[in-house]
Amino acid sequence: MCRKLVYLISFALVLGLAGYVHAAEADIEIPSVGYPKPILDGVMDDVWLLSTEQVMTLFTGEEPTSPEDCSASWWALWDEEYLYVLVDVTDEALVQDSDPSQGWQDDRVEIFIDGDNAKDDAPDGKNDYQYNFRWNHGEVETPVEWYFRATPHPSGSSLEGVEYGVATTDSGFLVEARMPWSTMTGEAPYEDQLIGINVMIDDDDDGGAEDTQFQWFTETTTPHVPSLWGTAVLVPGGGEPWLYVSIPKPADGDMLEDTWVNLSWKPGGRAVSHDVYIGDNFDDVNDGAESTFQGNQVATFLVVGFPGFPFPDGLVPGTTYYWRIDEVNDTEPNSPWKGPVWSFSIPPKTAYNPDPSDGAELVSPAVMLSWTPGFGAKLHTVYFGDNFDEVDNAAGGLPQGTANYTPGTLKMAETYYWRVDEFDVYRHV
């Protein structure tokens, strides 16, 4: 890999989640939703009637003069991908005059989630969250998040995939939000699962500091304590079943450091069997080319990359594979239900993801070079200099075990080149 060194970039650490711990008996039931799904447009659709209204009656601060001054109710639903929450706020004086970082001083909805219902006395840095959705004259802002995860997780930060709609109503404002399970718990939800939950609204009637906090479960001035939140159980609900395949494993776009994989998926609600397509060309898989069809099967998993299975010689490093599952039920006139095309990749044997990136500019003279090792690489040899041809043709360097290299103090306004050769236990790449 020959890289031209010119710019220093930065990247953000992605934070992760832990698993489930079952706790006490549930305070509410949250039903599942089939199809149609809630539309996040700030309007309460009929699908929300599958859920039970939860009235918020507990408050701290100034007592509201009437329900029109400040009151609220909320509803919740779930499916295999999201937790949905709708909060309908009654407020005759809507105010937004604070910086978003001080959003609790204005009119705002806050949703608290304890992903494993551990009921700790403080946020655990794993899967306890506070999502804040501020009213802003009906405009959608980036939600504010507290309690970032403390460990890496490939799905991203807990705001990854969060969507919501907000609308000003005749009596106040309404927020609809959906939070992905992939960032709240890192796993697909299941019936009878317990989660911790609380919903709160902040109310400001006259500008400046907030006047009242209304809460569903906790009458406290310290609402950030998971042990004080309620407990919800996920239960079966209503609506038409989702007919299409979902929840692929590995997740769409994942990078796998192996030459085989066990593909699995959640079947559609009326599927009897599954048509499986796999290949290394997106269009072929999307079009259902004969070369990509692996057969029809009842099982919801398939091994790939072993003798006797698709790609029996193993998956090839440096290759992206595409796969698709169509749901089949011969008694249904609309069958098969074509699924989306998902992908996963096997990393190349050569080094990749150089930092600084190729062609980068304004690099610190004290830069440390780094890269992602190639698949199976154990040793790395670095060649560095200010002449492209010399770096490109260099040989005989000393291998090292770490995936970084500090070339020493560099000259300003100079272009440098670098190359990394990878070695596994068998050969030089």
Describe the structure in brief.
Helix content is 4%, strand content 36%.
Describe the protein.
The protein has 429 residues and is mainly beta. The chain folds into three domains: 28-238, Immunoglobulin-like; 246-345, Immunoglobulin-like (Sandwich), CATH 2.60.40.10; 349-423, Immunoglobulin-like (Sandwich). The protein contains three helices and 27 strands. The protein has helices spanning 181-184, 282-287, 388-393; strands at residues 2-5, 28-33, 54-56, 58-61, 71-78, 82-90, 108-114, 128-134, 144-146, 163-168, 172-180, 194-203, 212-215, 230-238, 246-249, 254-255, 261-266, 273-279, 293-297, 301-304, 320-328, 341-345, 352-355, 369-372, 379-385, 404-405, 416-423. Strands 2, 4, 7, 8, 9, 12, 13 and 14 form an eight-stranded mixed β-sheet that branches. The chain has a five-stranded antiparallel β-sheet with strand order 3-5-6-11-10. The chain has a five-stranded mixed β-sheet with strand order 16-22-21-18-19. The radius of gyration is 27 Å and the shape is flat.
